[in-house]
UniProtKB/TrEMBL annotation:
Ranges in a coiled coil: none
Protein name, per record: CRISPR-associated helicase Cas3
Cited CDD domains: Cas3''_I (cd09641)
Keywords: Antiviral defense, ATP-binding, Helicase, Hydrolase, Metal-binding, Nuclease, Nucleotide-binding
Amino acid sequence: MTHNDGALIEGQIPIPPAFWLWAKTSRAPTEPPTYRWHPLAAHLVDAALVAQQLWAGWLSPSTKRWLGEPLGGEDHARALFALLAGCHDLGKATPAFQIQVDWLHPQLRDAGLAVDKPLPQRSKAPHALASAATVQPLLAARGWSEPAIRGVAAILGGHHGWFPPLGYEREPIKRPELYGLAGRPLGGAGDPWSAARERLFDLVVEVAGAQQVLGLAGTTELGSARRLALAGFVILADWIASNEQLFPYLCLPYDDAYLHAAQQRAAEALVQLGWHGVANLGAVVGAPAFEHRFGFSPNALQRQTLEAVEQGDGGLVLIEAPMGMGKTEAALAAAEVLATRQGHGGAFIGLPTQATSNQMFHRTRRWLEQLGPGTFVLELAHGRAQQVPAFRDLLENGAPSAVDVDEGDIARVTAEAWFTGPKRRLLAPFVVGTIDQILLGTAKVRHVALRHVGLAGKVVILDEVHAYDAYMSVFLRRVLEWLGAERIPVILLSATLPPAVRARLIEAYAGHSTPLGLVGYPSITTVSTDGHVTTTPVATDASSVTVRLEHLDEDPEDESSMPLLEMVAQMAEAGANILVIRNTVARAQRTYRAVAERRPMGTVHLLHARFTTADRLRKESWLAEHFGRGGTRLSGQVVVGTQVLEQSLDIDFDVLATDLAPVDLVLQRIGRVHRHRGTRRPVGFTEPRVIVTGFTRSPTGPPAFPSGSVRVYGEHLLLRTAALLLARDSLTLPDDVPSLVAAVYGDDDVIAPAWHDHGARVAVEWQSEQHERERRAEQFVISDPTRAGYLLELERIRLGDPEDDDDPRVQAAVRDSVPSIEVAIACVGPSPNIARFGTTEVSLEHPPTPDDVEAVLGSVVRLPSYLTEAATSLAVPEGWRRHPWLRRQRVLVLGLDGECSLGYYRIRYTDVEGLEVVSGGA
């Protein structure tokens, strides 16, 4: 309709003034312009109806049960959710909001809601805060207690992602003209704006079926955990109800006839968005079912894990076991049992890095394919997910029809485009992603409540929890505090944990400290929903293994003359496969070059984090093919790399040479030696052999370490690890694991007398640094559930509004790092507006084709953080700015020599050695 279509419809029953208020408008660029609008009453009804559909078809039974407990039943919780969703935009029924669209002023004036006077302070009453303020007198008039009112008001006030500030409820008193009060108290008699809000509120109560819960909730303490979850659900309902394709603008005042059409649209909305309802995971019961899932019979660890979750009531499960014992399969099987027994409808699996997440994505897909029947939506959640071909294939080719078809016993795994949008990834039923995704659930970022919605009704599995430093551990513990309060079951996996770390993780989830005493190894620790802690040692099927330990001094800064080179070359000549792990990329690149000079072409390989996506995937695929379980094994190969080789790669080598690192990481690396039973080894290499290098001993003092190792790990842990490992010529695994880790991370004096003064000094420095990291992290995490109260100012120090999962500001804040930038590596093309990505020539000024996108995404690499400032000068090609996956993609164009300048630096890239900074800098 146009603005002249009037504020009066003849021949009809008079329309209540409230039904003329608008919620959304648009102006089409036609001649003359076409104006459209959607009534506020209709939008509130849309949101309430979407909430009902979410409750009926998407919320898990466990979430419904939890939300319903304080209200006396799930039906009351459903009605409260619909009521809150329907009231979220009540603050739009104010002059401050309605004055914005002048072509609707005449109909508002005719309805008795004039907005003719200028309101220069209109911005002081944003509609979300106005919703929080204006709902309060409506609830007070219905007998609600002050605490109950404040709790609900904060939920409405936070529906745009930021919760209200302290004192917001005084705004109508300070600026009554913005609320249409004209000097009257909020909700006073004779106020047409208050009357309009009253009419809208009554409409929502009727549509939501909330008449009964309106009396119950007024005296109910929901608690901060439920309030945060409900706030997230309200945001979600609003997002869906605001989709104009699903809910077209009415362009007329609201009337009762609209309700029927809106009910139909709400019922169809979730189907059109690709939501398939609550997944039915089934459950692993007995060895045959486990073997069907994973292709092998369960071992002792896996059997005891299943027994622990079958006997418990859900809560926290902590599995500590050596590498290669099947912790992942134990966790997935346990997730099935927990989901079936408690009514959960999905899983989130979090890992330390994008590379480990990509590997777990493949394993999770295979697991889901064995669950059938049904459709299982699987999402890969990290900033480079679109660069993973398997995920893109699932997204493009695995999508089902609009109406799901029963395919018998076959499980159908798919991805849905809606869930790949900003801030939506965790909402998919099954999600594999980096740990950042869950840590952001306690960061002071916009829409933090949505991440809690994404975890509600899931079983959370967090792998390699030993990999997080003091800073990230603050976020992890706060996550566990909230998950415990929300009764979301969590499974933690670790090769081993220092006793103090283990105790703090358990305390965070349980809500209280518990003396653990001696913990065996391997072990399973469970925490019940009421906080009871039980630890069970695992009687493993395999016997202990003795690992030969050798120590090799080398010049910390000169790899070209190191004795390791000749040793590695000789072992490879004898047919052994050797894995060399360095602590920095530059050190790995130099080692690779030095070893390659001594070995035949094609027998030395390099892998680190500064390869493009395509090159890294190719290298990882080659590793899995030749050194993975059941692979076509080669001989005499040398693989040099960095920490990417110590995490989640199921690969097996005859010998490991490793830089000294903190003892838990050295043990993790040792897990890549003699990992696969039954593998044929060359003569002389039938026993596990580990060479520890990356240090130089001194006859009078402590050893020296490469500067890069100290920068990454700190000298304190390196020194304590050296004190233990350099005194031994063998390790017995897994027996020695807990004592070694406890000694390095404990307080006992393990430093040799000659090192004592230096060791004491670096220990003080290390402790000070850990405390400082924790202090910095505490600035950026939300309050714990016991102190969050009414959620007011939950994000008082705001990190920002992460539009995408790779937002550098937020990622850096969660990981305590300098923001880094990803670039697409290209070579010069035949013209300035064409560049070559791999073998594909791509236009920089025209929209990319699917093949172009594939080539560009495969060419992406993350730059070192010290290049971030220089990289900000790189532009996003004009032709890519509207493409959802390339719109923020900067390009680094290399010359014909494979090099280019970036600021003061000279950069080189090859598919053999990856990205290298060859010169420049301060």
